[in-house]
Structures are given as C-alpha cells and as structure tokens.
Amino acid sequence: MSRVFSAGVFLRTISKSVCLESSTVFIIQSESITLIVMLKFAKTSKAKGVDSLQVVRKLKLQNGSHQHATPKSPSQESKSTATSSGASSSAASPTHIIETHPVTANTVAKMKKKLAPPRTIEESSPFDKLTDKVITNIFSYLTAKRLCRCSQVCKRWQRLAWQPCLWTSIVLSKRQKDVDYALKCLIRRLCLETPYVCLSVVRIMLNGCEQLTDRGLGMIARHCQDLMHIELAGCSNVTNEGMFELVSRCPSLDYMDLSGCQQVNFMNFPSDYNALRASALQGQTILLRHLDLTDCGSLDDNGLRIIATNCPGLLNLYLRRCYQVTDIGVQYLSAHCFMIKELSLSDCYRVTDCGVREVAKLESHLRYLSIAKCELVTDIGVYVIAKLCFKLRYLNVRGCAHVTDKSMDVLARGCPRLRSLDVGKCPAITDRGVASIAMNCSGLRKLSLRDCVNITDETMQCLSQYCPELQQLNIQECEELTLRSYKMLKKYCRKCIIEHTNPAFY
Length: 506
Prior knowledge:
Radius of gyration: 42 Å
Helix content: 25-40%
Low-confidence stretches: 1-99, 268-280
Mean pLDDT: 79
Oligomer: single chain
Strand content: 5-15%
Strand order of the largest sheet: 6-7-8-9-10-11-12-13-14-15-16-17-18
Structural class: alpha/beta
C-alpha cells in the first residue's frame, strides 16, 4: 500500500531508518516528478561518531509548462540554485508531493547482493588458501559417508573428494538401511574415470550390514576385481552364490571375514547351479591367507574340503562354533594346507584326538592352536602337539576336562617358546603341571588357571620365581589361594595384571 510524503520528509526518513553498506538506488515516481536518489553510506572515524550521508539528486520536472524547456547550462543551474536557496530564507518554498512504494527487507537484501563488490582473495574463506594436497590429506581421515557430504560443498571439494586415492577403502556401517543401493551409487561414481572397473578399491568393510544380499556382492565382484580385503561379519543374508561370484572374480582376495554368515558353507553349490558356472572355479587357486568362518553353523566337512583344495596358501583359519566339522574335515586341512600358522577349532565338539593328531602334522608351521571346549580331546592329543609342534606360541585347552598334568609335563619340555596358555576349567590340572610349565617356559606372558580348583599357593610361588615377564594371570574361582601368595606375585611380577574373584585381594 502506497504512502504520501513530501520530498524533504522522505529523504530525512530514509537517512534515519535505512543503513546500507553499499550504494543503493531508490526510484520514486509520481505523476509530475521522478526522483532518483542515490544513497551512499560510508563509516567515518570514531572521533566523529556519526555516519556521513552523501545524497545525489536528479530532478526531472515533467509539467505542462516546462515540457519543452531547454536544459540549463551548469553555470545557470548553479545560479538558480543559489537564488532559490536565498529566497527560501524569506519565504517558504512550495512542497512537492511524491508517491513512494514501501521498501521491504527482501528488496534491500536483493539490491545489496547485486551491488556488492566481488570477493577478493583477502576476503575469501581461509580454507580456500590451502593447497589441494593439504585438503586431500585432511579428507583421507574421513569416512565414506562424510566424504560424500563434503563433495556437495563446492566444485573444488567435489573434485578433491572423489580422487581415487581417497577411495582405497569403503566402510559402511550397519545403520545403512539399503546397502545394495549405497554400493551401487558409490561404485558407479568411482567408475567414471575407468569405466566398469574400480581400480582403487582394495578394502571393503560391511560388518553388521544385515541388509546386504548376493546382489550387492555380485556388484562388488564385477567392478572391484583388485579387491584384497573384505569383511562381512554379521551379514546373515549372504549365501553361497555371492561367495562364488566373489572368489571367482577377485583373484587377489587375501583377507575374508565371514563370521556370523549362517547361510554360507563356502561354495557348496546349490542344486540350481549348472555345470558351466561351477566349472569356473575348477583348477583356480584362491590366494586367501586369512579366513574367518566363526559361527558359520552350516559349514560341514564337504565345505571344508572345498576350502582346503582351493586355498592351499591359508595361514590363518578360524572355525569357532562350526559344530558340523569333524575329524574328516580337519584331515582335509592337514592334507592340502601345509602353511597354516593359526588354527581355531573352539567349540567344535565333534573333533577328537584323531583330529588333533592331523593338526599336529603341520609341525613347525603351527604357532597358534585353540581346541577349547573340545571335550573329546585328552592327554593323547596334547602329547602329539607337544612332540611335533615345537614352535607353538599359543595353546588353548580350556574346558578339556580330560587334560591332566601328564600332558603339561610333555608340553613344557616340547614347547619351550610358549607365550600364552589357557588351561581354565581343567580340574585335573594341579600345582605339579603348572610348576613344570613355569620352570621350562620362562618367557610365559599370559596364563589362565580359571576354575582350576586344585591350584594352591605353591603355583604362585613358582610363577613369581620363574616367570618374571608374566603380564596377565587369571585365577578366578581358585579358592585355595591366599592373600600372602597374591602379594608375593605382585612383588616379583610388577607388570602382571591379575584377574581374581577373591574379595580379600582387593
């Protein structure tokens, strides 16, 4: 809605209510007069304390009597101005009525933006002064999700955020709902420079992504053929078909974590697989060196046979809680995988002394062995391990109730390089067996005697005397130990962390 002002009142109102940092032009129109006012505000020094106002006015009268008037020269205009100013002191000048349009905040903002001077180097963002190398180094610490967000800031960040050197690893969390779609978008963007192939991606970690399917794995297999490391822990919807695509198309695959993939028994082909697809893997050697199949309940001896025959270079194999594995499957391992250094058969309750005898054929290569809760394993199995695997560093026989001091004596003499031993919940172990370990394995670092009810203060004395480098000791539920032996061990093994349940030790 328009308002009516006199020219003088309008200028005074504008000067008091509007503050602009740059020049602004107001156009006031009426039937008889057009007034173009340029207001320019410049901040003066603090001594003055006020803003100076420079007003440039250009009046153009369009009356009937002056429509064909000739323009005045500059000298005549100055004279007429002086005369009018002198006359104003004696008589009041006539007031010109003008019609104005209301000035809103949006109008002022738009005009400021149009008339604002371009940004100079001094006024630019401090981040713009950094080189591409420095920004790339900063981006290297960001996750895949945050890199995608940074690529939307500006064109420069988009160019730097999608450099191949920043995408050697793809990490997606379990919070990602549609993992297959996220992988599709990432791979499509990374394939722009090298169509159909992501040469830069060598590590993919999708732990806990339960929505991942064989479709997503097939996309990885087709486009990331230089993949070396993949983690799929907890991806319960992945099946053998996805595993087959992965191992057959990614020949450089070195590390694979499939713990918790219940539907995977590793390339044990379904009935709908034709001979052509199955033959693609025949005669091909998979270069896997690390394979974790923990909690893969569907893995059986046949699947373990396929693993052993196709992955002869395995170094680390973990079969924890693979309840269908028996001595036959372990026999395949000893026949084809001669280089295994770490092997875990924890909770494989069907494995007996015969299976442990097959494991002992690995001899000097074996460094780590866990047969925890293999209740059918006795002193015979531990005896064979101690005789042949003389470079053993770690042994876990927790829960093997049939293991006694006899096997501990043989183990102490046969494996003097032992660094970690777990004989928890072996009630037949006494002070004699632990003393033999302490005297022959002086480099022992970790020892677990949890729930060994026959352990007394004599064991603590031997450990404090012969194992000064002991770092961790578990004596929970060993009720025969006293505070005196506890203090003595703390005195001679100062770096040792002791886990106990005796209230008197606190």
